[in-house]
Amino acid sequence: MISMAEYIWMDGAQPTQRLRSKTKIVPMENIENVTLEHFPEWGFDGSSTYQAQGHSSDLVLKPVCFVDDPIRGRGNFLVMCEVMNVDGTPHETNSRAKLRKTLEDGAAKEDPWFGFEQEYTLFRGRTPLGWPEDGYPAPQGPFYCGVGADEVFGRQLVEEHMQLCIDAGLMIYGINAEVMPGQWEYQVGYRGVKEESADALATSDHNWFARWLLYRIGEDHGITATLHPKPVRGDWNGAGQHTNFSTKSLRDPATGTQTMKTYLQRLENKHMDHIKVYGADLHDRLTGAHETCHINEFRSGPSDRGASIRIPIAMQKEGCGYLEDRRPGANADPYVIADRILRTICDL
Ligand code: ADP
Ligand code: MN
Ligand code: MN
Ligand code: MN
Predict the structure, then answer these.
(1) Mind listing the domains of the chain with CATH numbers?
(2) What is the dihedral of CA 116, 121, 125, 128, to 10 degrees?
(3) What does pTM read for this prediction?
(4) pLDDT digits (tens, 9 = 90+) for 13-60
């Protein structure tokens, strides 16, 4: 049978890389038995994606992960690709390759798991969903996890997106309406399913797939999703990408508390190195207000939503579990976030 494979990759746009994709027709002998090897490498014109100069613009798409394509349906696939140079080395914009290297350098031994809380804002034209054409909606308060046509905007798209994530086989964990009207969150990552691996590569791949699906389904609704960390200035919450992480020793009651102390110290020492790679315009969001810690400050604490690192109740009570890094912006690259966290906590 003939499959449509949507090859997805990240371009070279600065300061925030964006998604690109194109379709390859791939003959499949048996769609019940598809492996990565069935998807051949493919080329593209890097001079149109800020990844090459015109005179030698060919770059290589190397398939690294695939899931079912829930939009085109059974027998079709979404294929995540790393961008490679023609000599087979990773292109400089290939942040996934850097994360792979960090895992090989020692981080994988700690068996890290991740979970991303991806916030985003829906716009129709220049106006956030649910906002009047000019002026502002009622002040923040009733919108977070709200219900009702006067409080919640875009639920149809959000529900459709969640179902697509499930149908694709992504590790989607949940969704909620956010504090600012028109703003939403989905979570992707560890969710306690035995057969799943919530490792750094898989969870980051899944967040990129989920983003692609969000933009793609937005086309059908005439709605754009933006990951800008402060889509509306003023007394409105920004959009973040809280990143939850754990390692074997953090999850073990015998070693959890001591490991947590070590990690928190290392994270404090490297605070500014994290801030540098947690997304463009981060200073607009990390102001110290709106459930954030000021960008120049590092604070950690149990259940503290104004902290840089929040220690969840279970971690505090049971002496094991996971930690939440509340600093990354919604527009940060999950490969880069996971890479930075692992280099710091594993002292690589
Ligand atoms: P919050 O209370 O901060 O809003 P959410 O309920 O939105 O948290 O999301 C919880 C996140 O924590 C999910 O992304 C989930 O995958 C992640 N998570 C849960 N347990 C672990 C764990 N042991 N290791 C890593 N991530 C975890
Ligand atoms: Mn959340
Ligand atoms: Mn949130
Ligand atoms: Mn959170």
Answers:
(1) 2-92 (3.10.20.70), 107-345 (3.30.590.10)
(2) 180
(3) 0.97
(4) 999 999 999 999 999 999 999 999 999 999 999 999 999 987 788 999
